Amino acid sequence: MQNQLFIDGRFVPAINGGQIDVLCPADGSLITRIAAAEAEDIDLAVTAAQRAFPAWAALPAAERGRLLLRLADAIEANAEELAQLESLDTGHPIRDSRNLDVPRTAACFRYFGGMADKIEGAVIPVDAGFLNYVQRKPIGVIGQIVPWNFPLMFTSWKMGPALAAGNTVVIKPSEITPLSTLRIAELMHEVGFPAGVVNVVPGYGHTAGQRLAEHPDVGKIAFTGSTATGRRIVEASQGNLKRVQLELGGKGANIVFDDADLNAAINGAAWAIFHNQGQACIAGSRLILHERIADDFLGRFVELARSIRLGNPLDPDTEMGPLTSALHRDRVLSYVEVAKEQGGRILTGGKAPSDPALAGGYYVEPTVVEARPGDRVAQEEVFGPFVTVLRFSTDEEALAIANGTAYGLGSGLWTRDLQRAHRMAERIQAGMCWINCYKRVSPGSPFGGVGQSGYGREMGFEAIHDYTEARSVWVNVDAQIPPHFKR
Ligand code: NDP
């Protein structure tokens, strides 16, 4: 298992020798100690990425693509090992690591591998006699800071488009979950990525992350994490006016109308919040129910929530694993008290499971809380297996509740009425809206938020756009330009 920094094509210790314990969330045991990058290590990594940039950008685009395609193949060839590593480090149930995280990671690298030689410019119709063409040029060194909730998948969301477009990368995984990103670095090295093109520097946010965000030679910083840290990233970026892309928190509105297919909606709503223990920025954490179906829906939803199998993430029967850190488990549980203080009703969960086999891990029971739209648990991101139920009677009311937070990332609605579905999707203020489904993602479909959920988009041509600069070139083909100064 790799536990050092990956800089300039080699695994190296941190300059100051610092290390961080990586714990298994299922029982709190020590998995390994990793090297902790600090500012000096970040500087080395940025220098390596800067050195590698001209040759990488000049490489034929199809060659860059070929390396990304080979990486996707290597991920598939090592799928089981990566799935086990991700589950061990994050607590993702192995069925999800196998069926979602690993295949989605390979698919994303493959998508951007295929796209590398399809990043086309444009020819602009301008004044007669001139040719104006626009090229998309890489930015340079990209800093990427990723959180602990989907570390493997986020390596592909962040690195795939950046590398395809010809940039080089310094990526800081969360120090809580660095293992799969370090393994990806190893695979990249094996399939032939040149030294310095990708550098992986796990470390603390306030030291390593801060330095990367403020580094004068980094052209863009792409960040996924909390809105509060997102603001700090923007401040740190000011020195060299680097580009910033932010994928921040969410408070996903998931609206169930009274004409919905309730079986599908109940199952889909449970998936929307309980997948990955609710640690997802797009989680459907506000369940907004039409009053006519609310009681029936809740009775069955709570029954389903209680039946979800919590267990060791490496057990194929486990449907929900532990939260990723003890600190985060405590934060999630603190919201149960917040809910109670404001009169919220705990319909199920709200505590750690009583099963002694799970006592050493960071588990939280699936939790369903009924509250009011203005309550803190209906406004703030809990980021756990904690869903806040709200009721509505008219479409307008549903919309007002859905749009009544500072966030705007994922959203969902369940209805059989096609016109209502489109009408509501049009008016929900969110980057993504799922109709009669939830949490669908694809490497081709733009992903990102509005409001306090951030700006910029991952995936698809939108991401490529965000990882390139437009350069406009004017050619005087045979324009007759009258003299500007009559001499
Ligand atoms: P943070 O936003 O603090 O952490 C995300 C990443 O940013 C980590 O790698 C972190 O490193 C790094 N970071 C922290 N401070 C800085 C800084 N000053 N400069 C640069 N990088 C920094 O999230 P938390 O882990 O503290 O989680 C708190 C809450 O954030 C969650 O409860 C959830 O609401 C939200 N969140 C949202 C995510 C999303 O997918 N949008 C993902 C994760 C969290 P380090 O770990 O060392 O602090």
UniProtKB/TrEMBL annotation:
It comes from Pseudomonas knackmussii (strain DSM 6978 / CCUG 54928 / LMG 23759 / B13). InterPro entries: Ald_DH/histidinol_DH, Ald_DH_C, Ald_DH_CS_CYS, Ald_DH_N, Aldehyde_DH_dom. Its EC number is 1.2.1.3. The gene is dhas5. The lineage of its organism: Bacteria, Pseudomonadati, Pseudomonadota, Gammaproteobacteria, Pseudomonadales. GO terms for molecular function: aldehyde dehydrogenase (NAD+) activity. Keywords: Oxidoreductase. CDD domains: ALDH_HMSADH_HapE. This is Putative aldehyde dehydrogenase dhaS. Residues 18-473 form the Aldehyde dehydrogenase domain. PROSITE patterns: ALDEHYDE_DEHYDR_CYS. SUPFAM superfamilies: ALDH-like. Belongs to the aldehyde dehydrogenase family.
